[in-house]
Amino acid sequence: MNNAIAANTTLAETLPPQNITILHGIQWDTYQNLVRDLESQPGTKLTYDNGTLEILMPLPPHETFKKLLGRFVEVTTEELGIEIRSLGSTTWTREDLRKGLEPDECYYIQNELAVRGKDVIDLTLDPPPDLAIEVDNTSSSMNRMGIYAALRVPEVWRFDCETLTICSLVNEEYQPCEISLALPIFKAAVLMQFLELSLTMGETSLIRYVRQWVKEQLAKSSTVIE
Question: With contact defined as beta carbons under 8 Å apart, do 56 and 102 qualify?
Answer without folding.
Answer: no
